[in-house]
Amino acid sequence: MQYTIAIIGSGPMGFTSGVAFASWGNKVRFLDLNQKIVEKINSGISPFYEPGLQELFLSSRNNITATSDYSEALKWADIAFICVGTPEKEDGSVDLKYVESAAASLGQNLPNAPGLTIINKSTVPPGTVSGLIKETLEKISGGKAGKDFYIGSNPEFLAEGKAVEDALRPDKIVIGVSNDRAKEVLLSLYSHPSLSNSKIVVTDTNTAEAVKYGNNNWLPSKVCFVNEVGRILLKQGIDVYDIVKRAKELGMEDFLAENFEREVPVTGKEVLILKKLGEKTGVKTPILDSIIESLNPSEPAEMDWPELFKGALYSLHQVFLKEYSALGKLLNFNSAEVVHAVSLDKRAAHGFLDAGPGIGGSCFVKDLKGMAAVAKIKGYEAKLLLADVESDKIQKSYAFERLKEQIAELKGRKIAVLGLAFKPDTDDIRESAAISVINKLLEAGAEVHAWDPKAAENMKRIYPNITYFNHVNAALAGTDAAIVLTHWKEVKEADFSGMNGNLIVDARRTVEKGTAGKTVIGICWP
After folding, report:
1. Where are the beta strands (DSSP E) in 109-171?
2. What's this model's pTM, rounded to 2 decimal places?
């Protein structure tokens, strides 16, 4: 069955989801209070960059319109998706003002849209749909949920750079409902043939909301973990990439996939070994500290590096399970169903173990802090999530620290920063390591030569006075050193011979050793 869908909020998540719905033959009306975004959509221009999105948008344009008027957006609508931002407050908690505002505006228009199914896609703490959204809708409209309108939760799992593929062919579709009508509507919407390989999880709204956080807490935990271990191995002259590769060859990821949903015996001894190595070399280890506190391991025996990494990763996973079990009891969600849904993401066991300059983007850091803040309100300290945030702060400065090890005095030096987006194929600079690195370079008195093929305009809003270049070779010309923070393909093809200096700090393992006769050093590898 085809539907008329109102998308409330036309940011990256809302717009990509809406275009995917339109490509399946549904009629989609985007609503956004930013008139420039509305004009762009109605002119056939995607309001932001994402590979393949503009093309999919144009191929589905006959099914798409945009407006700033709620009554127009809801006219004849069968479903309204709330897709607004949930920014971070200063204390790390989730700001729900846009969600509440959207619910209030929907409530004002509900008398003219009887029987509307309202589904939240925004990332919100467990209990938001059944609490704030439901209460706001009922208060403003005077109607009753489950009778005059229907509500539910349907979180998104779109990775920037491949959001179109994730929207069209997701690993999983999570449906959180407390009524049959919303369940039937969502199951019908997601019955499109292209979704035949997508696993569908039907649960309650609290658990659906928690699944989003579970996904966005576990994946960055893996990245923060490998970065922290990588900092320790670097001091031993060992390449963390080699250790991870060997651990994978020993079946580490397959074992994790097979046992993701259950407790397995771990001693934590491997973590204790790594922690002691960190202490000897002055490496801070907040994640390892949190694991040790949770597992209280005894004195370990010696073992080789791949076994150390493998066992430590299993310990990390078990602490994550323990933490989410405790959170489920506090926040009234089914932690077993959350873990099951997270396991359906192929990245849960495989991948996300490439060391780099830190986690970035719109979700991961914000959602680590957000879930920890919700837990704090209930009197629980989510130690692993907080440790991830602390460890990531250390990592985001590590490329600069490696530069300082080689060039103690940076005042007046010209430093090329290659890559401003937090990863390739996006213009998103949110939580990008480039922000931390540029800030430290400027504090040290360096002159920054910045380059990125997509994200320069966004970075100019933060640092308008540094020098930006349209070509990577121009950014390198005459510089004393270069820092690689995003592995754009153009960096691999760059001509480093135009540099005056001899040093390349490669935070993305992109530049070959010995390139143009330069000294190339990593941040979690020698």
Report:
1. 117-120, 150-153
2. 0.95
